[in-house]
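Any chance you'd type out a single protein's sequence alongside its tokenized fold?
>
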Amino acid sequence: MTFIQPNKKNHSLVNALLVFLVVMAFGATFAMVALYNSTVNASHNIAAAKSALEATGAENTTLNNEILAMLGSGANTDLATTDGLVLDQAPQYFSVNQSWPLASQF
């Protein structure tokens, strides 16, 4: 009976290559999991920022509506009359001397 003994040097090289490929596969797997987690976290952060932006926009709209309601109603004329101000029916404005250079002409 004859036993064939394979070359030991080739097996050590193949074993080292297999170990290297297995380590690389596990490393790539963990890297992909980490990349996926960071992508999901970024997506959640974007969604939270969008909802915060929408809430701020809603507050801004509410404040603009309140300002327009105050300025458009008779509240400012009531405030003026309580402070003793009188509405001038024919206001006279100062005239601007046209020989002076304007800031837009520089």
User: Anything to note?
Assistant: The radius of gyration is 40 Å. The CA atoms of residues 39 and 45 lie 10 Å apart. The first helix runs from residue 8 to 72. Residues 10-44 form one domain.
